[in-house]
Amino acid sequence: MLSGCFSPKALEHVVIAYDHSVTRSLVEQLLLNIARSHHHQPVHFTAISSIAATFNYQFHAGATPPLGGLDGGFALAPIFGGSIAENPTFTISPIEGEDFTQRLLTPLREGKLTLLLRQGVDIDLLLRLMAGEIRTTTNNQETAYYNRPADQIGYPKFRQIVLHLSRLQDNNQLYIEPLVYDREWTLPLSSFSAGDFQTLENNYRVIVDADKQIFTIQKRSIGHTVITNYDPTTISNRERLALQAKADRWPPNDILVDIRPDNPGGEYPIQGAFRLRSFHGILNFLGRSIANEPEYHVDPDPGTGIVSENPVRVLDIIESTIERPNAKLSVTHEGHYYSIVDEEKRSWNQESFRLLYQLFQMTVTDAPRGNVPSITIAK
After folding, report:
1. Quick one: DSSP state of residue 107?
2. DSSP assignment of 22-90, as one string?
3. What's the pLDDT at 353?
4. Do the bridges between strand 214-228 and strand 175-188 make them parallel or antiparallel, or are there none, so unpaired?
């Protein structure tokens, strides 16, 4: 009976304890690698790929004479006892080789950004972390504005563009939708038989013009995601095809932006694409912003108006020689403390670090890793 009571309670305690330990380990690794980037040192992550915990429950019972000896009578005093032994085994795998390349060095794709935006993440927070630059086109001239404080012209422009999109998002006037378009082919009727038409109708829409002896086949496709100030379904199919063709010419880590005049926010038109960083690039950006290239305040463009939030730093990490008493998270590296402090009502800093954690989890590949050495620790 006692072992039956012990087992569920022990399991509940251990699952919560392991969950807390694994999460804490990853969170501290993230902050530690930002500190390493600040010191121009290589980053390194170690993943806990498995935990196996074995419990040994023992219960014993017996009887003993009373403490007063035989003079106390012949009644026996019962003895009950029990013990629990825990034997956990952790498998720790360093992120190295091809896994390191795929998770940390490969630029993030547009699908990850759109997935997070659909969860309600602020677009200004997300783009300030993920995007390394925006490339705009004016009069067939392409210009790159870098999300790096050292770029004294590009950085303020990048921030103003992101703030403008944030204002549209706050007013529910921003669309982040995939392009849905139709491709068409026109062919002579004589080129296909009746059986061919039946095959085509399974995958295409077929429109026959008997008078002109031609037929048109249409296929609906879903293309790249585009950030706009209008509903993409309201523009013509030709315009959607043109946007898709433009996005096809860019790398897969670019996401198209098309803010047009005569629509909400059209006072500040934007045509171009955000180029997303790798996760390693995000860590380097945050490491440089601690002291080497600190971010600074940028006012919105006059055409944007008032924005609800415009923090100076996307993630404020404080470097100090003593531990901050009000730190939400802190690690030590090279004789300094690196802390995340957030005293604002909305907790922008904590939200930013939570988003960084989510981005890292979105790079996860299958574990265990075949040819990467792992470490197994038996407690």
Report:
1. B
2. HHHHHHHHHHHHHHHHHTT-----EEEEEEEEEEEEEEEEEEE--TTGGGG-SPPEEEEEEEEEEEEEE
3. 94
4. antiparallel
